[in-house]
Write a structure and sequence with these properties.
Elements (H helix, E strand, L loop, with lengths): L2 E6 L8 E6 L4 E6 L31 E2 L8 E2 L2 H19 L4 E5 L5 H15 L4 E3 L6 H11 L8 H6 L2 E5 L3 H4 L1 H13 L4 E5 L12 E3 L6 H15 L4 H7 E2 L1 H9 L3 H8 L3 H13 L3 E5 L1 H4 L4 H15 L8 E4 L6 H7 L5 E2 L3 E2 L3 H11 L12 H9 L5 E5 L3 H4 L3 H10 L2 E6 L12 E4 L8 E4 L4 E5 L12 H16 L12 H9 L14 H7 L2 E2 L26 E2 L18 E6 L26 E3 L1 H6 L7 E6 L3 E8 L7 E5 L32 E7 L4 E8 L2 H8 L8 E7 L5 E8 L5 H10 L7 E6 L4 E8 L2 E9 L4 H10 L6 H5 L16 E3 L4 E2 H9 L4 H8 L9 H10 L5
The protein binds ligand MGD (2 copies), iron/sulfur cluster and molybdenum atom.
Iron/sulfur cluster binds next to α6.
């Protein structure tokens, strides 16, 4: 029977409500929940395809245990898996102390999961070694809010974005990363064109399409920019002296500091003109309301804390906080990174926005938990933690819901750490990740649509996440795995004591947790799973007596600091860690694509999500390519001080000369060579400890790899991927992706210096299903060239080109069109590899919802269609709208002929 369950999207921090249609066993469809205040029924290209993701062949289904390094893992029972884990942890703690173990968790866990992990680490094990991937994501924003305003609380609501007169978007590509919020901004701007939007980003992103002003500052120079703006605000008298006087401290010091940030100096540091800077300051200074949005371009920096505070300074100086359409509003990346901050899931925090370094806070929490004390040794942050694993100080590591062997900087060291760690537990929903490879114990976790709990989105709104279907195989929800393990560990290290983990459901965890927030800035004590069901998603604070949530903080100008006053921070601009030098003259920036999520464990199971960008490409400015004699699509080697990566280059003039860009999504599984983060650096901000993921010095050079390979194969793509992947280990270049919609196919591109052995090729052909049956074969052993095409029922179902791949795109198009062309046979039997003429269409799908290719849109534009005409005739941009900024850009580039 078809049923509908209301829940939330498991991707970004917008926190959209979804309606999951299912039959109790399988998810059949997903639509936006019209009653959810975050999205009012809208979804983006990722949310609306959730039901197409999560291929069971890629899921972790059973606990698996490795009994010795070098051996393969074998399936085991939950009982023996968790007993083994408890024994290993107890033994390690007994022998080396509680700080010899660590937990590395994730902003994608639910609040109840986090709470269980925190209690486990701090109360039971007695270590503060519990950190999360939010360290790579939001920790600079946490520091920013706490230092400037006194508590880690984004003060605004999504409505403020719509109501604002001036929105400053810094280091956020929200068109890709927070699409539904971007849609809301687009609509607001369409209704009130006088609303000003400024985008500060070194790249001209899709987000910049909406901007009245795009400031393409040099990477890392944000602090100089903010000080330069304040300098001008002061000079022109565009500040709010009454607010500064009544509600802040520290303005005199800041005034002295920004005196030195003259427009000429700032323009020079930021690589913009004085006029651009003045325009920006004027827009901000004269706006009745001013709101700023920021994300990883600000946080992921060795100056991340300073950037956050310098931006908040602008709001305090202009009194633009605590009123409609105003305030500093960080966009949270992960769906529940906020919940992580609330429950204390960074090593330096404790539940309820407390500090692990504060003795009073420790005593409060210890009291509440009924344990003598909480540990007072500082815990390790992500980068330090993996360094401690590498140097063998940490001997048992528990990783849940994150994939550090893809997402941490300086991958070579991370892989080394994981390989050498005596005991690694990985609690994961998908068995395919790079980190799973190192798991001595793999624990299958329930995932989206299968688990219950709560999440907090970017605007402090708590939603009830509800399960629609049972988890597959023996997968279990995270809170239950964690509590079950904790109860077994308790028996070994706290025998005879009453259990700290007597929870029978997530609601029980929430009930215990919420009282730790009572009376604090984030007070959740009036909420419960039942209240959320009755009232719908609510914004904190929501104290016990409350009837509704709190949309806006600090309306009274009172801040949660010691004296109730907000603080200006006066810190100098510091250049990024890796200075330009002859050996590494380019700055490598990394970030998100529209349709993929992080390491692609989930989005990488839905072929259509590769339609927008099919493979890992290095983007570079045309001038930089010319100087290096590189042509579009050519294979290049990118080198940094830490590693190198081979992939094709792509001309992209949205980048200024001197900069390069790589999507963050490709790790070692989808691209040979430890992925994007083989290049990035582990240097971090001194206060937030957030690493500088957006700024690595690199050089790019041409590589010639004469022997090339291409294959495409339909059916059981995840199984084939797993089977084929190891065969490409030795290749200098190998990239994997999916293509198609109704008939997904695996696509492989690879290249190396010498042809692989005949046996290796035979093995490849066998796994591709090209060794027998209705396969057309051509071989030219002299040139090491081979072609194989398998045709069933008049259509291509698998093919490979080895040695030489000139016909790649033509064949792929034939496959797409579902036919075996007349020209196929003569080409196949001829020694020449070039395809028999004809135009090969661009494979890029711009509109994923309606399946409209870039080619179709371009020819529509040629026929004279404008945006509305394209929408009407082709349907593109009429569903989620994520492709609209790109269509607008095509329209600008290729003006319609009358
Ligand atoms: N499609 C998609 N959406 C996602 C995610 C995903 O994986 N895929 N992940 C989610 C998560 S966890 C996060 S944290 C967010 C991230 O969301 P965003 O931060 O918006 O995304 P990024 O692409 O990482 O980086 C944003 C921009 O910062 C710019 N930038 C780089 N260096 C600088 C600098 O020095 N100064 C300034 N001003 N800008 C700079 C980059 O050019 C880039 O356009 O996205 C969330 N949403
Ligand atoms: N170069 C570069 N690197 C970056 C960034 C960047 O901009 N540039 N951004 C950084 C940022 S902001 C972030 S947030 C990180 C993200 O980095 P990761 O945390 O490594 O990203 P994910 O791939 O989302 O990892 C989440 C994992 O949890 C699994 N999972 C999904 N649902 C569940 C569940 O319910 N339970 C359990 N136990 N597991 C589940 C997924 O299969 C996936 O493997 O990457 C960081 N790394
Ligand atoms: S904007 Fe997209 S990815 Fe983010 S929560 Fe909404 S549907 Fe999910
Ligand atoms: Mo993130």
């Amino acid at each position: 029977m078809r049923q509908t369950t209301a829940s939330t999207c498991c991707y970004c921090g917008v926190g959209c409500g979804v309606l999951i249609e299912h039959d109790g066993e399988r998810v059949l469809d997903v639509t936006g929940d019209p009653s959810h205040p975050a999205n009012h029924g809208k979804l983006c290209s990722k949310g609306s395809t959730l039901h197409l993701t999560g291929d069971l062949d890629a899921r972790a289904l059973y606990p698996e245990l490795r009994l010795g390094k070098g051996l393969a893992r074998a399936r085991t029972s939950w009982d023996s898996a968790l007993d083994h884990a408890a024994n290993m942890f107890a033994k390690t703690i007994a022998e080396y102390g509680p700080d010899s173990v660590a937990f590395y968790i994730s902003g994608q866990l639910l609040t109840e999961d986090y709470y269980a992990f925190n209690k486990l680490a701090r109360a039971l094990v007695g270590t503060n070694n519990i950190d999360s991937n939010s360290r790579l994501c939001m920790s600079s924003a946490v520091v920013g809010y706490k230092r400037s305003l006194g508590a880690d609380a984004p003060p605004c609501s999504y409505e403020d974005i719509e109501q604002s007169d001036c929105v400053l978007i810094v280091g956020s590509n929200m068109a890709y990363a927070h699409p539904v919020l971007y849609r809301r901004l687009e609509e607001a701007k369409a209704k009130r064109p006088e609303m000003r939007i400024i985008v500060v980003d070194p790249r001209r992103t899709d987000t910049a399409e909406l901007a009245d002003q795009h400031l393409a500052i040099l990477p890392g120079t944000d602090v100089a920019l903010f000080h330069g703006i304040l300098h001008l605000l002061l000079r022109e008298g565009w500040i709010d002296r009454d607010f500064i006087e009544a509600h802040t401290d520290g303005f005199e010091d800041l005034k002295r500091l920004v005196r030195d940030y003259s427009p000429a100096l700032v323009a020079d540091l930021c690589g913009i003109s004085v006029a651009e800077l003045q325009d920006c300051a004027r827009t901000i200074g004269s706006a009745p309301s001013f709101l700023s949005l920021w994300c990883m371009g600000v946080n992921q920096s060795t100056a991340g804390s300073a950037k956050n505070s310098a931006l908040i300074n602008l709001h305090l100086a202009t009194g633009q906080i605590g009123k409609p359409g105003a305030g500093p509003f960080s966009l949270t990346g992960q769906p529940n990174a906020m919940g992580g901050r609330e429950t204390g899931s960074l090593s330096n925090l404790l539940p309820g926005h407390r500090e692990a370094g504060n003795a009073e806070h420790r005593a409060e929490v210890a009291d509440y938990w009924g344990v003598p004390a909480l540990p007072d040794t500082a815990g390790l942050s992500a980068i330090e933690l993996f360094e401690a694993v590498r140097s063998c100080k940490i001997k048992a590591l528990w990783i849940a819901c994150t994939n550090p062997a893809q997402s941490m900087p300086d991958q070579e060291r991370v892989h080394e750490a994981l390989a050498g760690c005596p005991f690694v537990v990985v609690q994961e929903a998908f068995s395919t990740t790079e980190t799973c490879h190192y798991a001595d114990l793999l624990l299958p976790a329930a995932s989206w649509g299968e688990k219950e709990g709560t999440v907090t989105n970017s605007e402090r709104r708590v939603s009830h996440v509800r399960p629609a279907i049972a988890a597959p195989g023996e997968a279990r929800p995270d809170w239950s795995i964690t509590c079950d393990f904790a109860r077994r560990l308790e028996k070994l290290i706290r025998p005879g004591e009453p259990s700290l983990f007597d929870f029978t459901n997530p609601a029980a965890l929430f009930e215990e947790y919420k009282l730790l927030t009572q009376g604090r800035d984030l007070d959740l004590s009036g909420l419960s799973h039942v209240v959320l069901d009755r009232l719908g998603p609510q914004q904190w604070p929501f104290p016990a007596a409350a009837r509704q949530g709190t949309p806006r903080l600090y309306e009274d100008g009172v801040f949660p600091t010691d004296n109730g006053r907000a603080r200006f921070l006066a810190e100098q601009y510091q250049a990024p860690q890796e200075k330009r030098e002859a050996r590494f003259p380019l700055t490598l920036n990394t970030g998100r694509l529209r349709d993929h999520w992080h390491g692609m464990s989930r989005t990488g199971t839905a072929a259509r999500l590769f339609g927008h960008v099919e493979e890992a490409l290095l983007s570079m400015n045309g001038d930089d390519m010319r100087r290096r004699r590189l042509i579009d699509g050519q294979l290049v080697k990118v080198r940094s001080r830490r590693g190198e990566l081979l992939l094709p280059v792509h001309k992209d003039d949205s980048l200024r000369p001197g900069q390069a860009f790589l999507p963050m999504h490709w790790g070692d599984r989808f691209l040979n060579g430890l992925g994007v983060n083989s290049l990035t650096l582990p240097a971090f901000d001194p206060i937030s400890k957030q690493p500088e993921l957006k700024h690595a010095g690199v050089e790019v050079e041409k590589v010639e790899l004469p022997w090339q390979f291409f294959a495409l194969v339909e059916g059981s793509v995840q199984k084939r991927f797993e089977a084929l992947r190891p065969l490409f280990e030795g290749f200098a270049y190998a990239s994997f992706s999916l293509t198609g919609r109704e008939r997904p196919a695996l696509v492989i591109r690879a290249a190396c210096n010498e042809p692989p052995s005949r046996t290796q090729l035979a093995k490849l052909e066998q796994l591709l299903g090209l060794d027998e049956g209705p396969v057309l074969v051509y071989d030219d052993p002299r040139r090491s060239v081979g072609k194989r095409v398998r045709i069933e029922h008049g259509r291509i179902v698998a093919l490979s080109l080895s040695g030489e791949t000139a016909a790649r795109d033509w064949l792929k198009q034939l496959w797409h069109d579902g036919k075996a062309d007349q020209a196929l046979r003569p080409w196949l039997l001829a020694p020449l590899s070039t395809p028999p003429g004809g135009n090969v269409r661009s494979a890029k799908t711009l509109c994923n919802c309606m399946n409209v290719s870039q080619d179709a849109i371009c020819s529509g534009i040629e026929r004279g269609l404008d945006l509305n005409g394209l929408k009407r005739e082709l349907g593109c941009g009429t569903s989620c709208g994520s492709c609209v900024p790109e269509i607008k850009r095509l329209l600008l580039k290729q003006p319609a002929v009358a």
